[in-house]
Amino acid sequence: MRFLIDAQLPRSLAACLRWRGQDVLHTLELPSGNRTPDQRINEISLEEQRVAVTKDAAFVNSFLVSGVPYKLLLVSTGSISNRDLEEIFSKNLPAILDAFEAYDYVEITRTALIEHR
């Protein structure tokens, strides 16, 4: 799967997902880095069919109103260490990949994966 990780999430999450065979970009790798506007993130997501991974509720609003980004993974873990976040993603990666076969908007918490219609 192809992911685009937003600025509020650590670059180490991108490395974690790459190590598990995923195609991942972090906003730090884009020309404007972490200052990349949400609109540009949405454009890249659509152009490259990448799942936007974010903590930013503005992406939820954009997705529900306009259908962008391409697909959305909302991270709702609250404050969490990078290590714990990577562990959650590692444990749940197969379920995340499966969820995106049927859903375009998925949310991950510390204890659950929520598939939104």
Judged by helices, strands and strand pairing, the structural class is alpha/beta
For the residues shown, what is the average pLDDT? 97
Radius of gyration over alpha carbons?
A: 13 Å
**Count of distinct structural domains:** 1
Number of helices: 4
How do the strands line up in the largest sheet? 2-1-3-4-5-6
The portion of residues forming beta strands comes to: 15-25%
Helical residues, percent:
40-55%
H/E element order: EHEHEHEHEE
- Quick one: overall form? globular
Poorly predicted runs are none
Distance between the termini: 20 Å
Major β-sheet, in short?
6 strands, mixed
Per DSSP E runs of 2 or more residues, the count of β-strands stands at 6
Describe this structure in words.
There is one protein chain. This protein has 117 residues and is an alpha/beta fold. The protein has one domain. The protein has 4 helices and 6 strands. A hairpin with a 4-residue loop joins strand 5 and strand 6. The longest helix has 21 residues, at 82-102. The chain starts with a strand and ends with a strand. The relative contact order is 0.17.
